[in-house]
């Protein structure tokens, strides 16, 4: 019973939990941004979502693709493609007993890079801002995967 | 060695494992629903998938977008966007040692909300059924993230 | 403190960490393959990505959908839809204390099936190669979920 509170007492695991929660919350925020753009741009994907705008053709014109909505959706999907590996590999990495300072460096760079990536995607900032922030998060995840495989390898 | 069986003996962790497995299986079911609609609607995305319908133009007409298939795919993507944060934040939450009854309340609401969301999306039910079931799952995940950050915060 | 190194000393957990890292890295590789096809096919989704090709209409023609890019993106999304459940259910399964040989069998089949699936999608190989490799990974995940639910069930 006491077990479940022990892992969370480990400083590396606490750091992991903190940054993992932050980037997952950031990813969840993309749902709200999508909803905001869908409502302000009046651009929906499902007929039932436009019912409040009237019936027939008056509602059907809101079933459309909007460039701003698609941009947020691409950012959301990019989050999934990158934050899922960070969450998974980061969890295994945190359980491999890395140095606290090294672990914090990895987690902080990843979280910072993904927050920058979101601003670069949504504003949008000129390239290579988005490319570099994506690459920083990617490189950090590869570095953690290397540690996991060198510590845990059991094929 | 005995270690791996201890976490699973914790009641909160067992509850987490149960509901996490349920919602992940529910998400996996969306793949089968997509396949069902692709086959019955004869609407495929890849040329090699239509080879059994003949060659050339007779097969090419099945490379098309179907409204029912796209609806299931949107539901599947929405699952990914919401069940991934639940899995990740819920795992950290379960390791934070919450009360069993509070934890069960969170897990049950989330699982119920996502099952309702799937029915609301696929039938489809009139809004705000889908919106409210989405919001319930979202709120539960935020509530668990708050607990994780207040217990584990280590920046 | 010593805690975080104990789970990783468990052989089943080490095997899980190894194969989970491998399939997550394989999924991450899809980002690079997408970037490769976007650059060689000159098919981009964001106006800021085409700025280096000049301004106005000369750049705008590269904002287009390319069949090869879309194929990689479908493969990437299919990875997300299948590797996320494997990661989540596999983690719970590894904590349920399965036999090492049974666990290795599950992990190896899944990793092999997903690597085959990627080749079948990208080359592409004629069906049912892609369908069967998808089904093998799916079946393994279901089998692990069954073990998790029969061991941990707490509703």
TrEMBL record, chains A, B, C:
It is found in: Endoplasmic reticulum membrane; Mitochondrion outer membrane. The chain crosses the membrane at residues 16-37, 83-111. Its main location: endoplasmic reticulum. GO terms for molecular function: glutathione transferase activity. One of its GO terms (cellular component) is mitochondrial outer membrane. Keywords: Acetylation, Endoplasmic reticulum, Membrane, Mitochondrion, Mitochondrion outer membrane, Transferase, Transmembrane, Transmembrane helix. Homotrimer; The trimer binds only one molecule of glutathione. This is Microsomal glutathione S-transferase 1. It comes from Gallus gallus (Chicken).
